[in-house]
Amino acid sequence: MQQAPVQSSVIKRQPSAIYRVLGDRIFLAVVLALALSIVALTLGLGYYLYLGGSQTINKEGFFGFLTGTTWDPALKLEFGIWPYVVGTLITSISALVLSVPVALAAAIFTAEYAPRWLAGFINYLVDLMAAVPSVVYGIWGIFVLAPFLREVFYLPVFMWAAENAPWLSRYLGNPAGYGMFTGIVILSSMVIPFTAALSRDAINLVPAAQREGAYALGATRWEVMQMVILPYARGGIFAGAMLALGRALGETMAVAMVIGNGNILPYTLFGPASTMPAVIALELKEAVEDLHYSAIIGVGFYLFLIAFIVNAAASYLLNKLKVGGQRA
Q: Which residues of 44-53 are buried (b: 16+ CB within 10 A; e: fewer)?
């Protein structure tokens, strides 16, 4: 007796057939246009970068510009970006290697071991780290990280190598505090939140039935983690690591402030180096020659290609991983 008014009101609110058909088509058109705008934006970005850098790319050659080791915008007007490419790849991959264990440990602790109040506090700090501007990390790197590393790590290692392994000193470089390793450490600090947050979410998505089934069979907590949780969540963990790698490839200000910005191939651990985003940020305002300006935009084009290749490879590998016991 009490349901009749409710049913009648629901029936009255049903839209007409024409409205439903038009609404469905309009909604489809809107989401299709917005989805295609992403494709257009990506292609347009790549085309603009190639067009802007084409003057220097055509002069040096597509592979000559990539593999050249001379960057001389003042006298010779020769442009080769290989030192910057190597610096970008070394700092980004090394930062990923350093950050993944820390991020994964934080995700496991907050998701599986920490009490609720402590997990919430740590998760808040992890999210806060992702929101801190990179220039703040750079200031911290200049005034805290670089002097700290110089005193507690660079100088002791350099002095030990000078007394016991002189051949090693040539690969360590100047222990001034600003160089490749400082850039790697600050990059790893910046990308930890991305891997930690996605890994934590992936671990939280593991069905409770699978955990309880493993416990019912007599598995310990570590065995449940090793045989159930990590295999189930590894797709999300891998996606978080690839997101962190993408962030590391494009990071600019913090790295530029501590890496020393040396225009040489980075063959020393402590010595100065540079990256592709850093050279763009530092030289864009100083370019007066058209060829120099074009070369800087060309660096952006090759950085775009590297990011595209890395993301394509990551997507391919991600599809090969088992997600939830099933292939994606």
A: eeeeebbebb
Among residues 75, 8, 89, the alpha carbon closest in space to that of 276 is found at 89
Q: What is the dihedral of CA 78, 79, 82, 84, to 10 degrees?
A: 120
**pLDDT tens readout for residues 193-229:** 989 998 999 999 889 888 888 888 888 888 898 889 9
Q: Given a cut of 90, is residue 6 above it in pLDDT?
A: no
Structure-token pair, residue 223: 């065995």
Rounded CA-CA distance 270/99 in Å is 19
Q: What is the pLDDT of residues 61-81, one digit of tens each?
A: 999 999 998 898 888 788 999
User: CA 109, 115, 118, 119 torsion: positive or negative?
Assistant: positive
Most confident by average pLDDT, 4-8, 66-70, 310-314: 66-70
Tokens of 255: 């790295």
Q: What is the pLDDT of residue 96?
A: 92
What's the predicted TM-score (pTM) here?
Answer: 0.84
Print the SS3 string covering the chain: CCCHHHHHHHHHHCCCHHHHHHHHHHHHHHHHHHHHHHHHHHHHHHHHHHHHHHHHHHHHCHHHHHHCCCEECCCCCEECCHHHHHHHHHHHHHHHHHHHHHHHHHHHHHHHHCCHHHHHHHHHHHHHHHHCCHHHHHHHHHHHHHHHHHHHHHHHHHHHHHHHCHHHHHHHCCCCCCCHHHHHHHHHHHHHHHHHHHHHHHHHCCCHHHHHHHHHCCCCHHHHHHHHHHHHHHHHHHHHHHHHHHHHHHCCHHHHHHCECCCCCCCCCCCCECCHHHHHHHHCCCCCCHHHHHHHHHHHHHHHHHHHHHHHHHHHHHHHCEECCEEC
pLDDT band of residue 11 (cuts 50, 70, 90) is: low
| E-assigned strand segments in 34-142 | 71-72, 78-79
The residue with tokens 């200031």 is: 139
Q: What is the DSSP letter of 323?
A: E
